[in-house]
Model the fold of this input.
Amino acid sequence: MFSEESLKFLKDLMMTSSPSGFEEEAAKVYREYLKKFCAEVKTDVLGNTIGTVNPGAPLRVMLSGHYDEIGFQIVYISEEGLLYFRPNGGIDKLNVPSTEVEILTENGRIPGVIGKKPIHLLKPAERNTPPELEDMWIDIGAESKAEAEKRVSIGDPVAVKSNFKMLSANRFMSKGTDDKVGAFVVAETLKELAKRKINVTVCGVGSVQEEVGLRGATTSTFGIDPQVGFAIDVGFATDIPDIPKKLLGEIKLGKGPELNRSCDNNVVLGRHLRAAAKAHNIPYQEAAAHRASGGTDAAQIQMTRAGVATALISIPNRYMHSPVEICDLRDVEAAVQILTETIAAFAGDESFIPGID
Done:
């Protein structure tokens, strides 16, 4: 199981607020943790944080987990002092009304709530129709536009209120598991590999702006120029009602991470992952991605420069893109173990070209 230090880092990372394009809080926590065991740590101009273990080896392996999250941005302040906003990433408007939020200003976090017209005042047809984002607002308790403008500014990013809670011995809840849990896996894998003698250079990236187009993975992969890349993200847990298993497969919390098969996954690298898991009796779940390509950093890593041998490892997640996402520590730990054993087994001269023995 994870050490107390690792679990504290998990909580600290989950409690940061880092809407896409505004990831400074997460980057600071991530950077300080990686400094404890990485030979090199830097944060680049986009906000990606890159930690390196065993620099200088010819074969470069990249790990990526994005620490940006979905959120909002203020676009208008009304005369009543209410804040109107746009989405930043893939927002589910059904989850938005009555959400507690925090506006990230130059002078700190300002608490607020997302409001809408009360149900008593809705017309019958409106009660059965989800409100549009443009019909909601953020209330920070200001009594006028002038008062609100003293506290917040147009363009300020908005995040769901930070939260983290252990619900049982293994399962935890946070608004930011997508994908701070993947960034956590990257950090813990680097930490484990730093204890070993390995034959490859490993660059672990806490990446940015994944939720708005895989942007951080684009630049960090180009800079690292790896031959091998692993993206660690969340995947859909299907062990709740009304999830179509015939379309998404059977994925359960606590039964191991998902090892994916899709166009984003190099078949040779996939064999290395499964061989390491089986050799060390580490649980995992097979997953056929719900679409042929895209949606995670794996797609961008794979297509960088002349191509990268890439694999996607997914942590099962319930209630994705909501303030109450749930993951299981057993899946997280198994992902770290599989990645650690896979990378530690590399001799440094592997070929990942499909069909070439």
Remarks:
- The chain is about 30% helix and 25% strand.
- The mean pLDDT is 94.
- The chain has two domains: 4-69+175-344, 71-160.
